[in-house]
## 1
Amino acid sequence: MYFISIISNMKNRDHIPSCENCLNDFDSIFKHLAPEEHSKVDNEKVCNSFKRGSIIYHEGSRTNGFYCINSGVLKIFKTGIDGREQIIAFAKRGDVIGYRSILSNELACSSAKVIDDAILCFIPGETLISLVKTNGNFSMAMMQQTCKELGEANSFITDIAQKTVRERLAEVLLNLKDIFDLDQDSVLQISLTREELANIVGTATESVIRLLSEFKHDKLIDLNGRRIKLLDIKRLEKISNAFN
């Protein structure tokens, strides 16, 4: 019911991104579909825009479809018993979210929130199940995507258990570089609050603020509000123990 409510409140219904345009722009799991399957997805999807702060789905809700990100950025997070968020992933153009709950027929295991105005395409769960059952290459791509996310979760658990907060912050900055890249001035192309950074690292906001100041003092980074410029990637790699 939650997804039905979301769809009924969507705006800008006149803007329907073409699946073909997306396929030409990035390596999509939908590249494995036959022309008639592409048409099926195109006809059954609902695409609309969401502003920063919009909640797409809540952890524990019953979902009846999944989303493909046409533009913008979302954070995927879980909520602890104290109400604190733990960011476990980001989703950007070309990524799909919410599909695991459809495949497992379980409640959503996380929440998704827009942090950079986004256009999302909602695809019914029945469409996904049909494609998985009839298209072997697409099914394999979905399994590979699921395994990749599981591997990332395992790495995160290991980092939380074995790395210091300083090491984890350095690693998070490098991961953000890999996900969102740097602009021509070596500034991360993603704007996050200090609280959001802390929710990725898995520590208190005060600790992240202190460590960012230390990194700036050591000329590892430069700060301009939420914008973070990476000055010495090699030293950040060494601090993060990225290759150990």
Note: The beta strands are 46-50, 55-57, 65-79, 85-91, 96-97, 111-124, 221-224, 227-230.
## 2
Amino acid sequence: MIIAVDFDGTIVEHDYPAIGKPIPFAIDVLKRLQEECHHQLILWSVREGDLLDEAVEYCRQNGLEFYAVNKNYPEEQPTDGASRKLNANLYIDDRNVGGLPDWGVIYRMIKFGESFNDAYANNDMVPPKKNFFQKLFKL
């Protein structure tokens, strides 16, 4: 499976343009998905230029290498006006509806094909009670 992974807010806390504090278990889970499940990971970020290079290097220093960065495959050449939409089977991004689940839940959902609620239950956790719209409108 090809998995596109955001950087800011997903692998590290939001502190753009700086690199935020690591989000616990993010890199560990991503490495396990590569090693155990043989998924291809693509870094998918709004970062460009030096800021993108810093993010890639941060991941590399922590033992995480991506198949490609902001493109579908390493050899892909950007074209003028081309969409940066990736051809991925799954996207991991903190801007998902409902936000970013715990990384243990993400791991179980991908590795074992569990539903969101089952992954929480099998991690001995209680799913959040408020849905996205309740959080958005502070209900």
Note: The chain has a mean pLDDT of 85.
